[in-house]
Amino acid sequence: MAETASPHFIKLDVSLEYITALLQTQFSSAVAVSFNEIPTGWNNKAIKVSTTIHKHPLLLRLSSTRSWPRKKIESEANTLSYLATLPELKTPTLIAHGFDFNYKDCDSVHWMLSDFIPAEMLESVWRGLETSDKLNILNQLRDVLRCLRNQVFHQIGGVALVGGIPQVVEYWRGYKYDSEADFFVGKMQSALLHLRSIDIKSVATKQAFEEVLESVEQANLADLIRQVFDKHKLTDNIVLCHNDFAFRNIMVRKNTDSYDVVAILDWEWCGAFPDYNEYQNEWLEEENEDDRNENKWIRSELERDKFPAFSNFGGLSVRGAVKALCIESLEAWRFEDESSPEFLDNIENIRSCLHIVEGFK
Predict the structure, then answer these.
(1) Distances from the Cα of 300 to the Cαs of 136, 137, 314, 334, 347, in angstroms?
(2) Do residues 34 and 75 make contact, with C-beta atoms less than 8 angstroms apart?
(3) What is the pTM of this model?
(4) What is the pLDDT of residues 85-136, one digit of tens each?
(5) What sign for the dihedral angle of Cα 62, 65, 67, 69?
């Protein structure tokens, strides 16, 4: 979730009149009669709304194209249309969505309207649950993960209905790849192209930066990655992934003697990716050592009875090294401020990640 200092933080002020104006672009007679905000991250605003034409409360979610690109915002609406065909995934019912291109102080505001689901965020209740309740919830999440993994594709990218048939389409970040190795190579090449455009003032820092980029390029990284994938037989299935399958995006409701998982939220990162992808999540936000141990326990319970059964589970350490080099070490935000004490550390981190990957050749 974005903090107030983040570039993704956007303050959006709303009123009954503004909500009504949005609704009437899709429902001409709708009038908002009450609303209250629901605490969320800083990069969107969630609002419970009652109207004159809907029998039950609705959830209105607002986000800004200054916070996220329009393609990302649109992709979630397209993805939800596909996910509606898979009720096991417990996705919200999308009622309507649109853009307000005239909102003050923003490029535009995207809004999505869905059913309001009375429930609690699993992140907020998990630490106080009995072990039996936790196990019951994890068994329900297994069913969701199983449904995701049963949707098999042959390319990496976004997923949408095309002519009523689910197909891999260009991901909102502008890519579609035929294999996992191609994915890492493409991400690496894109990152290097951007890093080459950074204007560094300090002569010494610029020299160190250019030297490490040259070492990556001289390593012929594209061939290196493909060699590593071939040697370690990293050919996992490409399946439907949520890509942010964390407890903050899972809603539960307490019944008489148990908790039910009633909704999985925030599908904007969803797409077709290798089947180990969901494994790498931090289910619970890690605030201390107890949380880290809890995440280990959650993962061990989800793996019980050989589920999920990754086709090459042993390749996770290799993939982790490739991901650390091709994506994490080359992230542009690491090199935005050359005066930062971490700038030179980040340069050395690239060199270290390259050395680790070369060791898997």
Answers:
(1) 15, 14, 15, 33, 35
(2) no
(3) 0.84
(4) 999 999 989 999 888 877 665 567 888 899 999 999 999 999 999 999 999 9
(5) positive
